[in-house]
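Question (not urgent): is this output format expected?
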Amino acid sequence: MKRFIVPSYGWKLVKELKHYAITTKAKDPWSHGKQATKNFKQEMTRLMLIEQKRRCAYCGCRLFEKRPHRDHIAPKESYREWMFWPTNLVLSCYTCNTDLKKTFDPILVKGSTYRRSEFSFVHPYFDDLDDHITYTSEDVKVLIQERNGSTKGKKTIDVFELSSAERSNQRAKDYLHDEDAADLYGHHRALLENARAAIETRLLKMND
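Got this back:
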């Protein structure tokens, strides 16, 4: 999966919201901000749904929620200056955001800017997932492991439990029944074809 393109949003407003997040006395400017904050969140959600093709930024599974979770890659509690930074925002499924990542801080080294910071896991906007993670199909499951010993790949798999049986089965179901399967590419397209072939083989054996 290729890195996401950052949603195009007015940087003047982004900088104003950054200043607001840093200077306001409100405990949670993200949830209880001014009207401009609400408008920003709604528009960013709309843009991210398009860019991410309604898939979770971390596990790649289909987002079925009417209101997908907006996740701060670097937790907003620790990095108020990046609370409204577009490259720090993605949409994620309930499992990845609430059950697994929670307030996990992926920043290893904080840089002078967000872009210069060093992240411990695959960053949806800065890294190509296929450079760090490899997929294989086994029977009707989609298995996952780090590519060439990638530490970012391993951390991503560990944090989001991508190698668990439950999540592997979910990925297989998504790839098999996805309405936009024709738009898949690279490893994802190969997985779809392999998984379908495995199912066809199993059906043939059952009919013998």
